[in-house]
């Protein structure tokens, strides 16, 4: 590297340093960034209402974390119920052509096709 390249690199590195007040976040800017997708707003509404109610009781940090934890636990529970239902009522059987995974054979090795 030449001295000119070193000076240019030193200036570039200095430009990468953030000021004390950066990054700037403003409430009005954050309101504009809210999700615009209607389905996402609908899904997030109960958690946001929970967080709003909990913010009056505890700090916003803990209220936000509790909202995330609660919504993820509810999603995990719903997924578990769905998987339990699927496994209970969609059993695989070699006698019937139904089940979660069913592969048609090509007739080789005595497998019936059709």
Topology of helices and strands:
Blueprint: H1 3-16, H2 27-32, H3 38-55, H4 60-89
Helix pairs in contact: 3-4
Question: Care to describe what's here?
Answer:
With 114 residues, this protein is mainly α. The protein has one domain (3-92). Helix content is 60%, strand content 0%. It has four helices and no strands. It has helices spanning 3-16, 27-32, 38-55, 60-89. α3 packs across α4 (60-89). Residues 110-114 have low confidence and may be disordered.
Tally of discrete structural domains: 1
Q: Which class best fits the helix and strand makeup?
A: mainly alpha
Strand content: under 5%
Intertermini distance: 72 Å
Based on CA inertia axes, which overall geometry fits? elongated
Q: Could you spell the SSE succession in H and E letters?
A: HHHH
Helical coverage, percent range: 55-70%
Q: How large, in whole angstroms, is the Cα Rg?
A: 28 Å
- Strands, total number: 0
Instruction: Note the total helix count.
Output: 4
Return residue spans where pLDDT drops below 50 for at least 5 consecutive residues. Answer: 110-114
Largest sheet: none
Mean pLDDT: 79
Short account of what is shown:
The chain has 114 residues and is mainly α. The chain has helices at 3-16, 27-32, 38-55, 60-89.
Question: Key terms for this structure?
Answer:
NADH dehydrogenase [ubiquinone] 1 beta subcomplex subunit 6; mainly alpha; NADH_DH_b-subcmplx_su6
